[in-house]
Amino acid sequence: MNLNEIIRTRRNIKSFREDQIGQEKLLEWLETASYAPNHHRTEPWEILFVGADTRAKLNHKTNFFNAPTVLAFLSVAGKTPLERDENMIAVSCMMQNFALLAHNDGAGTRWASFGSSATAREILGVPEGYEVVSMLAVGYPSEDPETKSRTNITEKIKVLA
Ligand SMILES: Cc1cc2nc3c(=O)[nH]c(=O)nc-3n(C[C@H](O)[C@H](O)[C@H](O)COP(=O)(O)O)c2cc1C
Q1: Is 50 a member of any domain?
Q2: 2-44 confidence digits (pLDDT tens)
Q3: Which atom of ligand 1 is nearest to the CA of 113?
Q4: What is the mean pLDDT of the chain?
């Protein structure tokens, strides 16, 4: 696939096969994903590989959609609201890179807006000074979801004088 196809065909995957993705592959995607933009080169991401016991304690939906791998993406909170925002944005860019790389290799991801509550933070052992950006369920898809159409981008564009 070329980059255009990779971006257009990536989908939020809701159902996964049982087979694990190799650790080397996951690390390769994370390593490449870390070439995401990040202001002042803070590299504000930290990634937690969330194992079975922790998943059970988190008790999220159908155990994170029964995906074989679950990752939590943390961001350094920074010293100011601006730094916090910039770091969260950088981690989001990194997560999207990861999702696209996984998709390009036939795997899939599902975002979970989960992990930032006090309870979840405690279970995940998130240290002070870190935010939980989101979690990703990762695995080989057992479905091929349709593209959800997008608004024509021209409707989202304003040209300023
Ligand atoms: C910040 C963020 C949070 C999201 N949280 C969730 C979530 O909690 N559960 C979920 O199923 N999808 C979540 N999604 C995925 C979106 O629902 C999904 O991208 C959207 O429906 C468009 O579908 P597509 O990714 O297949 O194009 C999230 C996406 C983003 C960017």
Answers
A1: yes
A2: 999 999 999 999 999 999 999 999 999 999 999 999 999 999 9
A3: 8
A4: 97
Q: Contact, 134 vs 114, CB < 8 A?
A: yes
Determine, yes or no, domain membership for 83.
yes
Does pLDDT of 148 surpass 90? no
CATH number where 50 lies:
3.40.109.10
161 CA to centre of ligand 1 in angstroms: 34
0.85 surpassed by pTM? yes
Q: Is residue 161 part of a domain?
A: no
Residues with CB under 6 A from ligand 1: 11-12, 110-113, 134, 148
Helix locations, the chain, DSSP H: 3-9, 23-33, 52-58, 81-104, 118-124
Distance 12 CA to ligand 1 centre (A): 6
In total, how many domains does the chain have? 1
- Beta strand pairing status for 130-139 and 69-76? antiparallel
In a domain, 23, yes or no: yes
